[in-house]
Amino acid sequence: MESTVVQQNHPSAGVPSTLQLLRLAARLAEDRNNASLARFGLTRASRAILDAAATGPAGSITVANRLGLRRQSLDRILPRLEARGYISRTWVAARRYRIEITSLGSEVVATIPPEPALLGPDEEQALRQGLFDLLAGLPPEKEFYGKATSLAAAPDVE
């Protein structure tokens, strides 16, 4: 009981942790972005795949790696994009295929509005740099960390 009282009287009691704030901000930003994409039957992840397909045909593993997606996520999203006629897949080997954008997919990419801005340019750049610094300081326990820190080293991360 005493520890509960101490926690409630602590200066940070009731204040979300940095991790909680990051999760909340990411969830709200994703929800906002997904709402703007809903009329196209897209989410942020499916839009990223469609944008990647618009750069030219590529293998499924290449697309997954380029976007930092797990193969399972890609395998779940691609059939939806294909069903809408936005992409086509050509099987090249067991569980491997080549992804290409269709003419309808190209039209959709040209029509999709840009991602809604959440911050001004200076604030966004400061936040992005802070997040890249955070990622660079984490132990590379997962494959994604390497991708994120390599993005931080890139001269232009937009």
List keywords for this structure.
158 residues; 61% helix; Arc Repressor Mutant, subunit A; three-stranded antiparallel β-sheet; single chain; globular
Describe the structure in your own words.
With 158 residues, the chain is mainly alpha-helical. The chain has a domain of 79 residues: Arc Repressor Mutant, subunit A, CATH 1.10.10.10. It has 8 helices and 3 strands; from the N terminus they run H-H-H-E-H-H-E-E-H-H-H. It has a 3-stranded antiparallel β-sheet with strand order 1-3-2. A hairpin with a 2-residue loop joins strand 2 and strand 3. Helix 3 crosses helix 5. The N terminus and C terminus are likely disordered.
Query: In CATH's first tier, which class of the domain at 37-115 applies?
Result: Mainly Alpha
Rg, Cα atoms, Å: 20 Å
Terminal Cα separation, in Å?
50 Å
Apparent shape: globular
Annotated CATH topology of the domain at 37-115: Arc Repressor Mutant, subunit A
What characterizes the major β-sheet? 3 strands, antiparallel
Q: Give, in spatial order, the strands making up the sheet with the most strands.
A: 1-3-2
Mean residue pLDDT: 81
Task: Give the H and E element order.
Answer: HHHEHHEEHHH
